[in-house]
Protein: DNA-binding transcriptional regulator, LysR family
Organism: Pseudomonas psychrophila
Amino acid sequence: MRRPAFDLDVLRTFVTGVELNSFARAADRLGRSTSAVSAQLKKLEQQIGTPVLAKSGRGLALTPMGESLLSHARRLLELNDSIFQMLHENQTAATVRLGLQEDFGEHFLSDILRRFVTTYPMVSLEVRIARNAELLTLMDNGGLDLALAWDTGLASTCVKRLGETQLHWIGSRDRPTGNRPAEAPLPLIMFDAPCVMRSAAIKALDEAHIAWRIALTSPGVGGIWAAVAAGLGVTLRTRIGLPSHLVIIRDLPALPTLAYVLHRVNEHLTPAARLLAELIETSLQEQSMTNGLGPG
């Protein structure tokens, strides 16, 4: 049996008339004649099979059925309007600017993008994969809407801590602590300063009274992995993206965890940017075990 369907235009007229306490004013607001509004109300009562309005003095009052209908009609109209707003936002050309620290960019970006474009196919994404310092500068200058970065201690209402991951000493499988004579300074493969991992490595070695030297610096993670694989020294990173031919070194000083945070340009993001922020958080949670995130 086919169920009858309400006419949303009729319901909107009914709700507007009740809220304005005048169906004449409702006709004016909705751009209809009073006779058209009267016809809509008559159609509504015929469809329901009972009056929704009753005379009360010089005006009209809701019947018990009218009161029940009003509540449901408001919900239907709110749902209808929210659907159209969402569809309009999804089809509106816009741009969301995302910054990712290099470790995250290589391993989480494809999953995040796939989910994002399903909901916002018309929104353009500008993705900047860079080091922490550059990302924070871009955020300060308004050049990014979102940035996933390592925690540098910046306190702000627009920064959300998403989790933390363990730092590790990493070396070549064949020469775990680098190609060096006994008692020689430990060769380090690092980013240029400033770098949160470089600072953590130096602090840990100094506290353990282990001599060290910077053997090579690289602007990118790929260069660090290559230098470590060649046996030029060791580095300090997380498990994220750790190549299979490199190993975690256990006989060097213990290391702390490093938190990762999501920066927002402000508290009032666009719907597309809000969704992207939610997808980043969800993706990190889902991959926390398989990609080496988490304090373990």
